[in-house]
Amino acid sequence: MAGRCHVILIGPQGSGKGTQATRIAAPLGLVHVATGDLFRQLMTRDDPLAREVRSYYDRGELVPDDVTLRVLLERLDELERELPSYRGALLDGYPRNRAQAEALDRVLRDRNDTIAAVVHLAVPRAVLIERLSGRLICPQCGATYHRTFAPPRVEGQCDQCGAPLVQRSDDTPEAIARRLDTYEQHTAPLLEYYRERGLVIDIDGNRPIDEVTRTIVSALEPVLADPSRCRSS
Ligand code: AP5
Ligand code: MG
Q: Distance, CA 17 to ligand 1 centroid (Å)?
């Protein structure tokens, strides 16, 4: 199997991972794979797995590692079947702790895949809270908006598919605080894990959305074109 070339997006909740991933994935030839989106899709069902995921998700806690890895692998296998020529995944929300990072390394080694880069989006905490409190999402197509910073053309309605916009069930003050604390404790230390391997690209995410997009694309293009970083280029 040809080695895929994946990019990981790491940043606290509200730093713009989802917002940027939907803009940069296609131009870079990557497929956006967000574990949070996979869980939101899964929770539209009513079965024991969906109820288990919801019990963690709504409180802003991490879903257990084994469940999360299974959901991620199912999606990667699906991409192999449906898009055999895809270059790699733009991973948004995975890994989030050391065990997940090590599991990912094992999985990628078995598949002969590589991590081309880890993009770190840095944004101050006060800004994150403001962004998450005003976020609206489309339950139908997953598009993300913000009441002030990225409003839809028609209030309360998705620009892409017209569905009514909603607030995410984990964008409550308690769950936001818990998610940000979990990020600091378990996810931020991963930056050191990847820094040691020379993979981290630091991006100032506290700038207008278009400016952040341009900076990430300019930083990733040469990496993805470099055969020593990305075998599948
Ligand atoms: P997930 O869906 O990944 O949510 P999250 O980690 O809480 O991150 P967010 O989606 O809130 O942040 P984002 O960086 O994508 O921000 P966005 O672009 O939307 O995970 C949800 C849950 O699923 C977890 O809590 C957990 O339960 C479970 N889960 C997922 N992965 C897991 C894993 N690996 N292991 C275990 N459990 C897992 O932007 C936010 C807002 O800001 C938007 O309104 C946007 O319009 C606005 N905005 C974005 N950029 C800018 C900008 N530059 N200027 C102004 N506004 C901006
Ligand atoms: Mg997101």
A: 6
